[in-house]
Amino acid sequence: MNPVLARETKERFRGKRTMPWLLIVWILAIGLIAYLLFVIAREIAQSQFGLGQALATGFMGRFLFESMTLLVVTAVVMVVPGLTALTIVGERERQTFQLLQVTQMSPYQLVFGKLSSSIAYFGILIVAVLPIVALPLIFGGTTLSDIAVALGFVALLTVMLGSLSMWMSARAKSSRGAVAMSYAIAFVIAFLSFAGLGAEYFFALDDRGSLPSEGVESVSAFVNPYFGLVSAIAAPLEIGQDRFFASPYTPLELHLFARQGAGGAVDFGGGGLEPGTIRIEDGRQFVNYSRPPLWIYTVVIYTGLIALGLWRAATIVTAPAARLRTRNGQKPKASTEPTTVVVDGAS
User: Fold this and answer.
1) What is the pLDDT of residues 9-61, one digit of tens each?
2) CA distance linking residue 81 with residue 179, whole number of Å
3) Would you call 238 helix, strand, or coil by DSSP?
4) Can you list the positions of beta strands (E) in the chain?
5) Residue 239, strand partner residues
6) For the residues 226-233, what does the mean pLDDT come to?
7) What is the tally of helices (H) and strands (E) in the chain?
8) Which residues lie below 8 Å from residue 305, measured CB to CB, with a gap of 6+?
9) How do residues 176-212 score in pLDDT, each as one tens digit?
10) Rounded CA gap, 259 and 35, in Å?
11) Among 4, 31, 97, 324, which is disulfide-ready with 91 (CB 3.0 to 4.6 Å)?
């Protein structure tokens, strides 16, 4: 086992932040939110739309699942940077950073150990509420594959934000700077990308204020975790009125439809679209992709950001090489004659 991971795990899980009462408060808070979402879904299904019992139950399950997954993604954005931003800069402030540098571990082992210990704590919080997140399976409207895809994407997002926060922690001079930079990156990726998407839509409108019939690409949405999550779960895009009844995914799915040139499918049931935009399988309507699913771009970008963050963090934590110089300040020349060398000031 990684020595840093072993030490960090013991320290972190024996601290006050992991006391049972904190886990109990966390579970109760998520349970209360889930109950409130259930009440909202029930009111929408029974009073506003007059759905049948079976369809209403399926809608409630889908509503709960979509709400909970968006909530978990938001929790990752708000919690993970704070957990990982102090890992390396904290060692520097405690003046123990040099001790880690001169150990037998490689820089990547050090970085992986720090990152793993930070993510493990957040992982316990997610595992603790996993039964609540899986509650929609009882109502229907969602499948085990949907939950597996959601958990996989959340894990990827967690590692990505943790890796970038590790980089910021390694290069920062103070804890405050590391936390500020880590949260700035997380907020740009998760929230400021919405503003970039709005700007892209504005410049894509034609003279009549409409989007192109062939759809519009959205680079800003590639890095947005909410669009990536919805794209991965909703693929392939299906047209169905039951999917757009006050669903939490609805605003995000509308963009995914518009990106494929099927923006009118939601409001008009697929009418007026270009031939070949929609295919029918077993009586269900699916959108034929004119562009690759958005989640593919998101996964590739996140993987690249993980590699970049870990590489930069490992480069910074690498122990500096020994500086060799002669007494007159010149580097020693290759020679067969004995030369007096000073290593870091000691002869």
Assistant:
1) 666 666 655 557 777 888 888 889 989 988 888 888 777 656 556 667 778 88
2) 7
3) strand
4) 238-239, 278-281, 284-287, 324-325, 342-343
5) 285
6) 94
7) 15, 5
8) 160, 163, 164
9) 999 999 999 999 999 999 999 888 888 877 666 666 6
10) 34
11) 97
The answer to whether 251 and 245 are in contact (CB under 8 A) is: no
d(CA 61, CA 41) in angstroms, rounded, equals 8
Residue 280: how many CB atoms within 10 A of its CB?
10
Report the distance separating Cα 116 and Cα 162, nearest Å.
Answer: 9
The pLDDT tens digits of the residues spanning 111-132 come to: 888 888 888 878 888 888 888 8
Residue given tokens 């571990």 in the structure block: 105
- Asked whether the bond before 293 is cis by omega within 30 degrees of 0, the reply is no
CA atoms within 13 A on the CB side of 253: 23
What is the 8-class DSSP label of residue 202?
Answer: H
Burial class of 289 by CB neighbour count within 10 A (0 to 12, 13 to 18, 19+): middle
Taking the CA atoms of the chain, what radius of gyration do you get in angstroms? 26
Burial class (CB in 10 A: 0-12, 13-18, 19+), 220: middle
Find where tokens 């990547």 sit: 108
What is the full DSSP assignment across 16-71?
GGG-HHHHHHHHHHHHHHHHHHHHHHHHIIIIIS---HHHHHHHHHHHHHHHHHHH
CA distance 346 to 343: 5
**Neighbour count for residue 208 (Cβ, 10 Å):** 5
At 73, the amino acid letter reads: V
Structure tokens at 278: 């929609």
Q: 185: Cβ–Cβ under 8 A, 6 or more apart, which residues?
A: 81, 161, 164, 165, 168
- Residues 232 and 280 sit within 8 Å (Cβ to Cβ): no
